[in-house]
Amino acid sequence: MPSTPRSAAARDPWISLTLDSMHLAFDAHQVISLRLMRFAVPGWHGEELSRMVDEKIDASIEAGFAAQLGILNGDSASELANRVTRVFRRRVSANKRRLTR
Fold it and tell me: Which residue among 36, 65, 96, 98 is the one 20 to 30 A from 28 at the CA level?
């Protein structure tokens, strides 16, 4: 019986990482586009610029902690990469939801 792409991704962490990275890239592109459209509105960009910087710092710290936790747990390289990608993906998805309201 042939396997479905979803079951193949569940078995192979590198396929899962590839798919998560692709979703992250698409969502990040949408967030960038949404922010650029909002920057065209006068007076709006100061708040968003501060938020962008703060979020990047927070996401980097959280990703670092996720990687450290994975190392302490003895995760493989693919598991570490998946942990870090999930952090950024969750944050980018939250931004996308916020900006599309």
Answer: 65
